[in-house]
Each structure stands twice: as C-alpha cells, then as structure tokens.
Write a structure and sequence with these properties.
Elements (H helix, E strand, L loop, with lengths): L7 H9 L41 H15 L27 E4 L3 E4 L29 H4 E3 L6 E4 L7 H4 L2 H5 L11 H7 L5 E4 L3 H17 L12 E4 L2 E2 L16 H8 L1 H10 L7 E2 L2 H16 L4 E2 L9 H16 L3 H18 L2 E2 H11 L4 H11 L22 E8 L2 E9 L4 H11 L8 E7 L3 E6 L1
Parallel strand pairs: 5-6, 7-8, 9-10, 11-14
Antiparallel strand pairs: 1-2, 1-4, 3-4, 11-12, 13-14
The chain binds zinc ion.
Zinc ion binds next to loops.
C-alpha cells in the first residue's frame, strides 16, 4: 500500500523516484497542493479520484471498500494484533529460573520435563550484583551442571523470568493449589473459569490484560484450560497519587506510607479514606486533610452511642431517610461507588445529630452499612451496644421502595407565574388541598380576581389573577 499524497514517507519516496502523486482525499477546508507536501489531515475530507468511493468520508470509504471486497469474494475483514517483541529475562534472583543449560558442544538445551520444575537455589544474598549479572551467576554449585544431551559439563541459564511469567496465569492455580497432577482439575476449572471478575491496578491494565489473555489463549490451544478467555469482567482501580498530584515515588519525596497512617489515625480511618478518596476508576491525589476528615467522621459515629435511645426500629422523622440511605449505600457498594455511599452515611449522621437522638434500630443499621469500610470500630460498637452475635455476620438491612419516597414535599407557590412563597405538603396531597395551602401562603398577594388555579403535582401551584 502506498498513498504518496497523504503520507509523508510515501510522499518523499514518490518525489525521489519521480512517481505520480495522486490526491485521493480532499481537504474540507479548501484546495491543497499535494505536489508541495503530503496532505495528512484526512479525518474529515471526502474521497476523490477513487471510483465508486468518490464523495465518501474516509471512515465510510474504509467500510465500503471492505464490503466491496467481501461481495466480490476476494477478501474479508480481519482484525490483526501485534504483540511487540518482548525481553523475557531479568538479572535478578526473584523470578522463575529459565530451564535451559548452555553446553559447549550442543548449545542451548532444555532441561527434560521430568526434571521440572527447576527451583531457585537457597542463597544467603539475593541482592543485585555490581557487574550487572544475575545474582544466580555467583552460585557456582547451582550453575555448574551436566548437559542433558551429551552428559558433558554445562552451565545453567542464570537470568530469571519477569513477573509476567507468573502473573499471567497464577489465578488459574488459585483454583486448585494442591493439585499435583495438573494446573487445576477439570471440575475445578469448570466451576471457576472464566473468572467472574478480575480487578487490578490501572497501571497494569494494558500489559497484564494483554499478556494474561495471550497466556490463556495458549493454554486453551494446548487443551490445558477449558475456555479461550480468562475473565468475564475486568475492572481497574485508579492510582492514588501523592499530595502534589504526581505519581508517588521515593525520588519525588511524596510517598505516603500506609503504616504511618495506621499508626496516627487507625486502620479504619485509612480504609474509609481510601474508599472515600474519589471515583473508583479515577486517579486521586492524597490529602492529609481528607484523612483527618474521615477520622472526624468516624469519631462522630463513635460518639453517637451517647445519643442512642432504647427505642427499637426507626423513628417516624427519619424513617424515609433510613430507607433512602440503605438503598443508596447498597447500590453504591454494588457499583463500586464507595465514595458516594460514604457521603450518604456522613449526611445520615448529621441528621442524627440534628435530631439529638438516634434509635437502637437506626444505629444498628448505620453500623451494618459502615462495617465494610470501618470494620474494627463498628464491630466494637456492635458489642458495646449489645446487639446479637457478630456484626460481620449480621444480615444486610433491607429497604422498602415505597418508604424511600418523601412523605412531605416542598412546592413553589406562584402568582401569575412568579414564585411568591413555598409550602410543605404531604406528597400524596390532592389538587384541592395543594391549592388551598398555596392560596393561604400568598393570601396578601391575591388582590385581584382569581381566573385560574393550576397544580403541577410535586412541583408547584400557580394562581392566575386579573
Ligand atoms: Zn551437550
């Protein structure tokens, strides 16, 4: 393929060898001279000098030419993948040893299968060496061996495999870790594979996803696994950046050590903060103020025990709010929106403090909802309050859809289309009640003759007067 009018390298080639440069895509912005330079901004222009493709945009034309080839029976559409060449060795101790020996006579010889797996030698030091060689190279008793082919002296390969060697398939072994006969039994694979849901760090998404699928394809082609794809669903969580918004690294001096946070603020605070820091899949910058805010939130939850009443169940005032919060938090956890779920619980405890009281039932529900993000403190409160059994075994609270709807709503009252007041109404109030309440609220504004009364349920009352 060559498109000298629209590719710089092709254009230079054509110029050098005096070949014709035929424009096939017009610029949407007006005429261009392809003999002066290649015209490469072809995303929007229409095709010319291209037979039946003339007048189409490039994306359209690509589809049309493919269909044309299929129709003529001279080609089909196909997606090609290209895995780049990949250096599969490292000069370090930790890594799977490569089961190859170097023999002066036979060259590189693989170790026979019955001698596998080749294991790392026990060593005193596995630190990298000064000369750039693998630490294994210094273990002469391990390195020196005999050739499986000719029996003469030979040396083992001392480089080891990269982390991908194991990370691309380890999760298949988790299915059946003690199986000595196979990677995993067919029954176990049938039950577990493909993995329902694989989550990893955003920085591993591209390569790990590519390599593990490549591995899995290979194992499938070899008849070792039972399915061609390793997972049904794959997600990645965002990276937590340093306080300055840059990737954490020693050289930048912006590393936050989780152990320090645990020591200063507690494990529950760290956990709550990490869940609260932002949307699951997005990167977020660390904030010490944010950590403190989460600590304050947990302290407020702890102090709520002083406001707990004997009353079981939910209070009349907060019943709707409780059902709404259970629904919100449950849904948010399921869809990985931990930050908004925690925000809903923060708002809920504000309501408890505003009321100056919280029922036993309300506090119990709060503890269950909060348990996944602050397990230690909530379990402790559960015991202090004398709730039955262990919190982590407690049943998840349920919400009733009809109870999540506000019983009381606020609506605007307009006079001739202008908002003059607001009134609170029962959510199921009928038109007559709403209009009566609205008229009462704007009584001093109703000086003329009322000609029309409009009620938009849940929204507004409009009194039109002359
Ligand atoms: Zn040999």
């Amino acid at each position: 393929m060559a498109v000298p009018a629209h590719d710089d390298r092709d254009w230079e080639f054509a110029k050098k060898f005096g070949m014709p440069i035929v424009q096939v895509v017009e610029s949407a912005k007006g005429p261009v001279d392809v003999n002066e330079a290649a015209f490469t901004d072809v995303a929007t222009g229409k095709l010319v000098n291209s037979g039946f493709l003339n007048g189409m945009e490039v994306t359209e034309a690509k589809k049309a030419i493919t269909e044309h080839l299929v129709q003529k029976g001279i080609g089909t559409a196909k997606t090609n993948y290209k895995l780049r060449d990949w250096v599969f060795s490292r000069q370090r101790y930790w890594g799977e040893p490569i089961p190859i020996v170097k023999c002066e006579k036979c060259g590189y010889v693989p170790i026979p299968e019955e001698q596998l797996p080749l294991e790392l030698p026990e060593v005193e030091s596995y630190m990298p060496t000064d000369n750039g060689e693998s630490p294994l190279a210094a273990m002469r008793s391990w390195v020196e061996t005999t050739c499986p082919c000719c029996g003469q002296k030979a040396e083992r390969e001392t480089d080891t495999m990269p982390q991908w060697a194991g990370s691309s398939w380890y999760f298949i072994r988790y299915i059946d870790p003690h199986n000595k006969e196979a990677l995993a039994s067919p029954e176990a694979m049938k039950y577990w594979l493909p993995v329902d849901w694989y989550n990893g760090g955003m920085e591993h998404t591209t390569l790990h996803l590519l390599y593990s699928r490549f591995w899995h394809r290979f194992l499938y082609d070899q008849g070792i696994v039972n399915c061609p794809e390793p997972y049904q669903k794959r997600t990645s969580h965002g990276m937590i950046l340093g306080e300055n918004g840059e990737k954490m690294s020693k050289s930048r001096g912006n590393v936050v050590n989780p152990d320090d946070i645990v020591n200063d603020f507690g494990a529950d605070t760290l956990r709550t903060y990490e869940m609260f820091i932002g949307a699951f899949e997005l990167s977020a910058a660390w904030s010490q103020e944010g950590v403190k805010g989460c600590r304050r939130f947990l302290e407020r939850v702890w102090k709520l025990q002083e406001l707990v009443q004997e009353e079981e169940g939910y209070s009349k005032e907060l019943e709707t709010r409780m059902h709404q919060t259970i629904k919100k938090v449950s849904g948010d956890y399921e869809s990985l929106k931990y930050n908004t779920g925690i925000a809903a619980m923060m708002a809920l405890i504000n309501e408890f403090y505003k009321a100056g009281r919280v029922t036993k039932g309300e506090f119990k529900t709060l503890l269950i909802l909060l348990n996944p993000v602050a397990p230690h403190m909530t379990e402790e409160l559960w015991e202090i309050m004398g709730y039955e059994g262990y919190l982590y075994q407690a049943k998840w609270p349920v919400w009733e859809e009809e109870k999540t709807v506000e019983a009381v709503i606020e609506i605007a009252v307009q006079v001739n289309g202008k908002v003059r007041a607001t009134v609170k109404l029962a959510a199921d109030a009928d038109k007559e009640t709403a209009i009566a309440a609205g008229k009462e609220a704007v009584a001093d504004k109703l000086t003329g003759t009322v000609v029309k009364e409009i009620y938009v349920p849940g929204r507004l009352v409009n009194i039109v007067q002359k």
